[in-house]
Write a structure and sequence with these properties.
2 copies of one chain form a homodimer. By secondary structure, chain A is of the alpha/beta class. Chain A folds into 2 domains: 166 residues, Rossmann fold (3-Layer(aba) Sandwich); 199 residues, Dehydroquinate synthase-like - alpha domain (Dehydroquinate synthase-like, alpha domain, Up-down Bundle). Chain A is 49% helix and 13% strand. In chain A, strands 2-10-7-5-3-4 form a 6-stranded parallel β-sheet, sandwiched between helices. In chain A, strands 6-9-8 form a 3-stranded mixed β-sheet. In chain A, helix 2 packs across helix 3 and helix 12 packs across helix 14.
Chain lengths: 384, 384
C-alpha cells in the first residue's frame, strides 16, 4: 500500500520567463503592498514598484536583507511593516529574502514573537496575502513551509516550519536569474541538487515526491555547469529554475536530511553560504548513506548518464563521484580545509548537527556522534 | 527554453488510507457544513455526519446526485443550500458528486446563474470553503478547476472551467474506493488513464505535467486489472488512487484532448458513462494521433512493459494495443457497435465533437470532420 502523505504547496505556481509580469493578476483584492527585495536587483524592483503604483496600489519597498539572516534583521523589519499595515507581502529575491518575507508575513501583526514560532507547527495564523518570486535557482523557498534564521549569539541556524509560511502564489521566472553571479549560481544550484537528493533518498520518501525529485536531479545535473559558465543562457537558466522548483516542491512534504543538518553549523558558526556548505558535505554524506541507498543512487546514476551495465553498487558509487565532479566543475570549494574550517571544530560541529533532530531523523541511515565526526573529517581531508 | 505554465492545484492534498479522518483538521474556521454525497456510501457518510455533529458542527447532508448530472439537478440543489448558508461544502463521491459540489459552491449565493458560468474563466468568485473527497479512482475532479454538466435538451455535455472550482482541500483516500463495483472501477480507471495519456501527448504538454502523467500511466496500467478483479486489494486500490490523482493534477494545467471531446456526444446523446466512452475511443484516437506521437507513445510503451529493442514506431503501436487490451481485460465494451450506438449517428456525433473546441484544440493532431467520422467509424467496427 502506498503510504500517506500531506501535500501542501502554494495553490498557484507561475513558471516561466516573464512570469513576474503576472504578479498584478494576483493582487486584485489588495491595496497596500510591502515588497522585500535584494539591492542588486533594485532596478527591476523599481520598475515593478512604479508599475504597481501607476495601477493605484500603495507600495512600500525595503532592501533590508542580509544573507543567512540573523534574528535581529527580521525583528528590525517588523515595526515598520506593522505601521504600514499591508494587505500583501511580496518577497522577491533569494532564499534569505523570501524567508524574511514569509516570516514578516506571519509576525508583523505582533500576535506572536520570533521566539514563539521557532520549530514545527508553532505559527498560529497569517492575515496577509503572501507572494514569493525567486531570483536564484536553489533555495526552493518560494514554495516551502520553511524559513531559516541565524541565531548569532548561539552560532546556530534555526528553522521555522509552518503551513502558514507557504505562499499563496509562487512565481518562478528564469529571466530574474540571468544576472546572478556565477559563484551564486553554482552554490544555489548545488543547494537545489541537495534538496532533490535528500528528498529522494529520505527515510520518509514517497512516490509522489520521488518522481519530482529524480526529475530535478536530472535537470540540475544536465544544466548547472552551463548556467554557471554561460550566465545569460536562458535555456540553462530555465532548466535550473525548474529543477530548483522541483527541489522546493520536495521540501514541504518530505524535506531534507543529514546534509542540511550538518551544513547548519558551517553556516551558523563559520558563515559559509548555505549552498556551499551543502555542496561540500553532499558527497561525503552520500558515501556514508550508500549501504542504505544502493538502489536509489543507481537510479540517480541512470538519470545523470552513468553508463548502464555496471552493478547497482558500482552505479551508485559512480553517481556520488559524478555529483562531486559537478560541484568541482562549478568552482565550489571541495572540502572543509579549503574553506578554512579549523579541524579542531569538527567535534563541536558534529554535536551541533546531531541537535538538528528534525532533519537528522530524515536521514536514510542513522548517524551517531562518532560517525558525524568521521563524515566531517572525510569532508575536511576530501576522502570519498 | 522551458515554456510557461500556470500550475493551479488545491493547496492541500491528503493522500492515503484513512485520509477522510483528517477532514476535521481542515474545518477549524467553519461552523455550518453542507455535504453532498452518493447513496451507496450512505453508511460511511452518516458516521462522518455524526462525528462532525458531536464536535459541534451544524451539518446538512444531501444525496441528490445523479451520474452525468443534468443542469436541472444542479439547479434543484441551489435553493436549499442557500437557505442553509454553509461555511463549507464537502463533495464526497465520484466525479458527478464532486462536480456538483464544486458548482454548488460557486453558485448557491445566487450572484451568478448556471448559464453565466459555462465555458472558461466565467465564475467571478467563491465565498465558501470547498473540500472534495474522491470515492472512485478516475475523474481526478478532486483537484481540478473543471466541472461537467449534461444539457439534456440539447443532448450536450457542457464544461465549466474556473480557478474558483479548485477545492481548498482534496482528500484521496483509497479505502473509500474498496466497495466500488468492478465495472465502475474499470471505467473510472480507464478515464484516469485517458487523462494521463491525453495530457502527456497534448499539444500544450509541459515537462512538469509529462513527468506526472507518465508516472500515472505506469501506475494505472500495472494496477487497474487487479483493482477490477480484486476489489478489496488495498495495494491495487491505493496505486489506482494515486494514478487517478496524477491524472487529475494534469487536467488543470494541461487538460485532455480529442478523446474527451469525442466522448461528450456519447455521454450527452446516448448516456454512455464518461469512463466507458473514453475507454472505447482511446485506442482509435491514439491510432489517429500516432504520426505526431511516436516518441511519446514509445515512452509510454517503455513504462507499460513493452519489450525494448523494437523501433520507436513499433513500440508506439504496441503501446496502443496494450492499452486496448487492458480495457478489454477489464470488461469494458470494446466498440461503439457493442455499445449499441446506431451507426447512422456517427456524422452528428462527429459534428458535436468538433464543437468542443476547448478540448479539440489540445489534440496533438488536428482533426477535421471527415477524420472525426472516420475515427468513430473505426471505433464502431473495432478496426485499430
Amino acid at each position: 500500500m502506498i503510504k500517506n502523505i500531506t501535500i501542501n504547496w502554494p495553490s498557484i505556481i507561475e513558471f516561466g520567463a516573464g512570469g513576474i509580469n503576472k504578479i498584478k493578476d494576483y493582487l486584485k483584492d489588495v491595496k497596500k503592498i510591502f515588497i522585500l527585495s535584494d539591492l542588486p536587483i533594485r532596478e527591476k524592483i523599481e520598475k515593478l514598484e512604479n508599475e504597481l503604483k501607476s495601477l493605484g496600489f500603495i507600495v512600500k519597498v525595503s532592501y533590508d536583507v542580509v544573507p543567512e539572516p540573523p534574528i535581529k534583521v527580521l525583528k528590525k523589519l517588523l515595526d515598520p511593516v506593522k505601521e504600514f499595515s499591508p494587505d500583501a507581502i511580496i518577497g522577491i529575491g533569494g532564499g534569505s529574502t523570501m524567508d524574511l518575507a514569509k516570516l514578516t508575513a506571519v509576525l508583523f501583526s505582533g500576535e506572536q514573537k520570533v521566539e514563539d514560532i521557532i520549530g514545527i507547527g508553532k505559527v498560529i495564523n497569517r492575515n496577509v496575502k503572501l507572494i514569493t518570486v525567486s531570483t536564484t535557482s536553489g533555495t526552493g523557498s518560494e514554495v516551502t513551509p520553511i524559513a531559516v534564521l541565524t541565531d548569532v549569539e548561539n552560532k546556530l541556524k534555526k528553522g521555522v516550519v509552518s503551513k502558514y509560511l507557504i505562499p499563496d502564489v509562487a512565481i518562478v521566472d528564469p529571466e530574474m536569474t540571468i544576472s546572478l553571479p556565477s559563484h551564486i549560481t553554482a552554490s544555489t544550484g548545488m543547494d537545489a541538487m541537495t534538496h532533490c537528493i535528500e528528498a529522494y533518498t529520505n527515510r520518509y520518501s514517497h512516490p509522489i515526491i520521488d518522481n519530482i525529485a529524480l526529475d530535478g536531479i536530472a535537470l540540475i545535473f544536465k544544466n548547472l555547469e552551463k548556467a554557471v559558465k554561460e550566465g545569460d543562457n536562458i535555456d540553462a537558466r530555465s532548466a535550473m529554475a525548474l529543477g530548483s522548483l522541483y527541489g522546493g516542491l520536495c521540501l514541504g512534504p518530505v524535506n531534507t536530511a543529514a546534509v542540511h543538518a550538518m551544513a547548519y553549523p558551517l553556516g551558523g558558526e563559520f558563515k559559509i553560504p548555505h549552498g556551499v556548505a551543502n555542496s561540500v558535505l553532499l558527497p561525503y554524506v552520500m558515501s556514508f548513506n550508500l549501504p542504505k541507498c544502493i538502489e536509489k543512487y543507481s537510479n540517480i546514476a541512470e538519470v545523470i548518464g552513468v553508463e548502464r551495465g555496471l552493478s547497482s553498487e558500482d552505479m551508485a558509487k559512480e553517481a556520488i563521484l559524478k555529483i562531486k565532479t559537478l560541484s568541482d566543475n562549478c568552482g565550489i570549494p571541495t572540502g572543509l580545509k579549503t574553506l578554512k574550517i579549523p579541524e579542531e571544530s569538527i567535534p563541536s560541529m558534529a554535536k551541533s548537527a546531531l541537535l538538528v533532530k528534525r532533519l537528522m531523523e530524515n536521514n536514510p541511515r542513522v548517524i551517531n556522534l562518532d560517525q558525524a565526526k568521521d563524515i566531517f573529517q572525510k569532508a575536511y581531508e576530501e576522502i570519498i
